[in-house]
Amino acid sequence: MPQRVDPNLPAKPFPFLAPDDYYSYLNNADYSYYNDTYAPKKENRPPPPMDAVLPKSFSLLSRLHVPVTVTSSDILYQCNVRAIRPDAYDPPIFDELAPPPNPSVIPLDDRPDVSELALKTPLFKIQTIEEANSDELRKSCFDSSIAVIRGLANTVGFDLSSFTTKALLQLQPEYPVDVRTQYGMPSDVNVNATGKQTWRCSSMQGDTDIFHYGIYQGEVYQQLDVPSYTNPKMATTMLEKAVETRGPSSKRLRPDDQVAGTEYKPKQVVEFCTNVDLSDDTTFAAQLHELNKLPAFLRNSTSRNSLHHLDYSILGMNTVQMYMKVPGCRTPGHLENNCFSSVNINIGPGDCEWFGVDYKYWPVINQLCEERGIHLMNDAWWPNFEDLVRARVPVYRFLQKTGDVVWVGGGCVHWVQAVGCCNNVAWNVGPITPKQLKMSLFSYEWNKLTNFQSLVPMQRLCWKLASHAQIENREMFNVIKGVLIRSLAFCRMVYDHVESCKPSSINIQKPVDGEVSHYCERCTVEVFNIIFTKTRGNKVTVHCAFCAKRTNFKDYTIFQEIEFSELSRIFDAFSVYSAKAPLLQ
Asked: GO CC annotation: what is one (predicted)?
């Protein structure tokens, strides 16, 4: 049985699937996910439902039994057959008892040798506008787990000074911001208050405003040896200087007394100003204007960013946020929400040190977290390098200098530490590629399994892409169409089941423009189109069909937001777009 780490180290055996094929469990020799004309052999089909019941489960990765060329009327007709003549419902539209997502783990023997674990980070140097807007740069980034784009800000005339602390102090000094109080320590060390090595990151949440954090950051900056910013080995000395300055938070982490025999013990704390929301296009018009100077594939607001097609804001994802730092401030290890890509610009003046792990190794990172009682998505953690070496996980490690743009590819696990005083602006992007969409769909289903809410409503997003985006890639079209097939069919199955239990209980209530997506109060999954609400006092909560079914829909008010005629119109109009010219806006 394969092992997680080297054979001479203590380890537990684990099962694994074929690497790099997270759709493998959806397919077999008789069926291909992208085959738009072929259905599996009849003997491989699951038995049909016996009446208009809810499917036992619903997954956007469930195996399809109809081609992507199917029409909406065909889907709705089969749903009708399922409701009134279940014995004739053969073949089904999709598997109604889908297996849970099972990420592929690369066996230890297939991982690099220890000498090959330090990866070279792709560095793209931009000197002309043509290079900045080239397909070569875009494709190179899309093919990279993580990459640095150097010289881009200067080439396109991006004004870094618009994002400095000084500029924000002049613009909005009383703007409220969140602050994280963290232990200060070198980037290759993570210990608790007693000096014991751990993956867990300790921090306390507080709040302040830009004015008070600006004072704190400025005082720290005055104490630092500015030339040493370029040398990450100076981080320890800089931290010792930085933590002498009192930060804006009234709350403090109080380390215990020194424990004999420990190599390093945190003595003080640093303050990290997180998630400064720049989404207000009136207040931050100048800042948002600068972002439009970037190449199209990097912009927050562009038709080539799938997240732009959502008609409401998801803070920090399809809106821009800024982070204000002093030496030692950490962004703990994480995957971006739903494995979307992200863009990060260092405003300076100090550097940031980055660490990244390719998407195909995230199951290994997840296992390492689980072994330590850490939830990959919910908890704050900072990997121990010796543990990564034992598990033979290759890591990118690099410095992000002033003006550098870091491209974080979809699904890249990463963590960041400030070497100097600096500000960073960041946001997510969704390249309209099958690779990105598959990652996001798998993350969406994995989040259900781990009780973590997906910030991106993938059903709603795919319907928006079908309605508004110009999809030129046939594989991308097939993936989106597969989601629409499952979504349309499931909506109708839910509708039919509710009507059989509570006739005429579903009312049409069209959503308000820009209304946020609904999530189940109990299980946190996206609730699309058929909305179950319950009122308790002055509070109205939303539930999914499965959770509402627990009480046979008693005390629920049920709404349908989009009529089937409208969904059918979008479904049937969706097609592969033949572009006559490249879309750069």
From this structure: MLL3/4 complex
- Write out the DSSP string of 281-327: TTTTHHHHHHHTTS-GGG-SSSTTBGGGGSSS--TTTTS-EEEEE-T
3 state SS for 355-404: EEECHHHHHHHHHHHHHCCCCCCCCCECCCHHHHHHCCCCEEEEEECCCC
Global pTM? 0.86
517: alpha, beta or left? (left if phi > 0; alpha if psi -120 to 50)? beta
Q: Which run of H or of E encompasses 81? A: helix 72-84
Phi, psi of 272 (to 5 degrees): -115, 120
Eight-state DSSP code of residue 164 = S
The candidate with the shortest Cα–Cα distance to 452, out of 337, 315, 537, 366, is: 337
223, 242 Cβ separation under 8 angstroms = yes
> What 3-state DSSP class applies to 428?
strand
> How far is Cα of residue 423 from the mean position of the Cα atoms in its chain?
22
d(CA 523, CA 547): 8
- For the stretch 439-484, pLDDT in tens is 999 999 999 999 999 999 999 999 999 999 999 999 999 999 999 9
